[in-house]
Amino acid sequence: MVYADITYASGAAEMLRLATTRPDLASLSTAQALYGLPTAGTCRNADGSSSACQNYILEITNRSSLAHELDRPEIFISGALHGDERIGPSTALALSRWLIERYDTDPWMRRLVDQRIILVMPMTNAIGVEQRRRDELGIDPNRDFPYDQVPSACMQTVTARSINELYRARLLQLVVTFHGGMQAIAYNWGSFNYYQSKPHRSPDDVSQRQVAEQMSKFAGTGGSRTRNTKYLFKTMNDLVYPVHGGMEDWGYAASWDRAFVRTCEPRTYGGYEAARTTYSDAAVRAFTVLIETSDLKAPTADTYGAEAGVYNINSDADGHVPRNVRLSLAAIDLVRPHVAAWREGEATAAAAGSEVGAPVSAGGCVPLQWIVWGAIQVEAATPVCRRDATAAWIECGDTQSGPGVWGGDSTPLTPHTFRGCARVPVGAVGGAYQVAVRAKVDTAWSRRPAEAFAPLMDPQSHLALSRKEGYTADNHGHKVSGHSSWLSAALGVMVAGGSTTPPPSPSPSPAPSPSPAPTAHPIQPRIDLFAFSSDEARLPSSALALALAPDGRSLSLRVSLGRLAAATCVLVTIAASADGSSFGTRVLALWLVPAGVPATSVPPPECVGDGAFSTAELPLPVFPSASLSLSGGFSGWGWRFVRFGNDGATFAIVVISFGAACAVAWGLLRAVSDPHGSKRGLQRLPDAPEYPEPADSPGSQAGGYPPTSEPTTAAAHRDTGLEAEGPRQMKPLW
């Protein structure tokens, strides 16, 4: 794919495509639907019609495990505060596509999507992108924030209000905001109150400077298309210029540098509640970094580059967009460390996780290799051992230091790999043991800079303090937990003379069995099923529940519906997987009709599910259906129109049947909501069984991702927890 400039219409269409193609990984909404904001101006749609401009927000994360990880780091990517600066929207959309479409084949992207929440607004200033203008109806959005700004001159734009609501509702740790007009990476400070006669550095200068440096390094030059020079990185006051009401300083400091924060009193769009610019101590403390992408605000088409250039640095396919995708990936990865360890010589799917491997004698060496992602400097990395999941970890190997993936000459494409021994204690009795690697990284981030800085305070950003043991923050149920050491997943070893039973998993749930060798017969599948609504406002996904029918072969979709104001169409995407990673989907069209609407009411033409086939293929002939082959050999998905009354009752309809050849064994899933009503994902009920992954699981496929010696199983790329978390470790659900 060759990258190109995007329009409002093409950007909106592509976000919708990504969200509907992978509903397990992406959801699409708008600031208007989420926060009740007005719209600014009229935009053209992909079908040629015009409607009110929407401020789209694409959320990318593994939604199936989100309910269990309230401290999953949140990152925000803003494509364009200024609509005439065109590289940012294309980059934000390309980044979204890269994360979602490579999830099944690129272990690094899979881990980022599994362990991060990435919020993307390619067209932050929607009307500006539509009209190719810097401003929003005459107002500059990047002077519209309540930091070092007068009350009447902030929160005047829908653009600024959309960002404001996102910060208030979430707990952002890192924000990338794209601009254009020069080539630079700039960080705090960038305001007049820290300009003349004051240091330009902030209390978080150590982490900000180090992260900016790695972003610049991995971005590279972009090749000859982009002036063939790396991004300079410095404070905004040194490299760009100071402003009043800038997003970057507001997004970093509005929750703690309160002397310069004003409550806004705008008159536009009917005003804006003052309470919405009064911030909690946790809400607005993100490292908000400015990226000036290109010398020209609208570079020529031949400088954009192509998708093939993202991992091929300085190739003919490199350009403005590939290097800014790389820059964004660096930022996303650096938000949280992740230690990936495996037994040397056994870096395969069969040897990862809880596998036993070759037995060792008491006092013997278990040769390990490990990579430390999300880190620049590994200050101490030590093998640790324990008898089982109930015992404490003890050091059982030599401590090493060196570069993380982002330190020295290491990159995600050629990561630095550590090697060492975990020595089983001399007095160990025979049986199963566990080994892992514990790493201490980048602790300088939580300390004050050595150079002059202002104000004289300790580091204040969530990003820096996440490297500090014991730090916690909470905003509406979204959390940050700070740690000074990070633990890899446990690896099982057998001490000679003991049982051959594999060791327990480090998490309370039972460990999966080794994948059997491929045979001509399919293994018993584990089926993961989800239902997602296309319209959370009218029919939230939490109102959709799946249940296995008594015959063990059919599935029912149960819809809990409240009162309806008007007839509406909601598309429900049902996704299924036999391996927990590769999902097939079908769309069910629901025509929701309130009481009082004539029985002759018919759905609009666009209210259509996924096709039709012979009813003879289904045991439930009332549902016209479309065939679909899923991993595991499932087929026979259906769609239909459904009429509902307006009494708030719950309705059940059977929509799916599995072929007779499929042995179905799965744990029921249920939708859950956090205490503040925002959907956090789906979870498996406690009594759900675990089943082995298919031997040819897409999560184990090689190729199409950065070459590393790290194990390529999904388990090897999940962060299984932080040592200090104890029983609240992040646990893979399957």
Give a written overview of the molecule:
The chain is built from 11 helices and 31 strands. It has 734 residues and is an alpha+beta fold. The protein has 3 domains: 8-333, 3-Layer(aba) Sandwich (Aminopeptidase), CATH 3.40.630.10; 338-515 and 704-728; 528-684, no CATH class. The strands form 9 sheets. It has an 8-stranded mixed sheet, with helices on both faces. Strands 13, 14, 15, 17, 20 and 21 form a 6-stranded antiparallel sheet that branches. A 3-stranded antiparallel sheet has the order 11-12-16, with no helix packed on it. A hairpin with a 6-residue loop joins β25 (568-577) and β26. The protein is globular, with a radius of gyration of 26 Å. The two termini are 33 Å apart.
